[in-house]
Recover the amino acids of this structure.
């Protein structure tokens, strides 16, 4: 879909947009504005039964943790693919209390 893989800090990001967001989060953490963040958090959206019917996962780009105990689940998407839309639908059904923000 036109995204170019980018390397930063020894990490391969799927897009320039994702790498830039990572750099921004690093600066926010260094400045003390956020407590921290994690990359590539996995959420099981459909259970699997065996090796032929594996579980489906939604992998978000970032979860940002704030000093007040709140958090944001963030995905840096340039384009919403069919696969992404299907996994988001399954995610929302399984985790209705969670919200994914698109950057």
């Amino acid at each position: 879909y036109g995204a170019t893989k980018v390397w930063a800090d020894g990490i391969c990001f799927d897009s320039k947009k994702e790498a830039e967001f990572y750099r921004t989060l690093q600066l926010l953490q260094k400045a003390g504005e956020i407590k921290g963040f994690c990359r590539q958090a996995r959420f099981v959206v459909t259970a699997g039964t065996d090796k032929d019917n594996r579980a489906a996962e939604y992998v978000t780009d970032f979860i940002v943790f704030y000093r007040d105990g709140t958090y944001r689940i963030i995905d840096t998407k340039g384009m919403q693919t069919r696969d992404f839309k299907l996994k988001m639908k399954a995610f929302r059904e399984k985790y209705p209390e969670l919200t994914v923000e698109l950057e």
Summary: Residues 16-30 form the longest helix (15 residues). Helices lie at 16-30, 82-94.
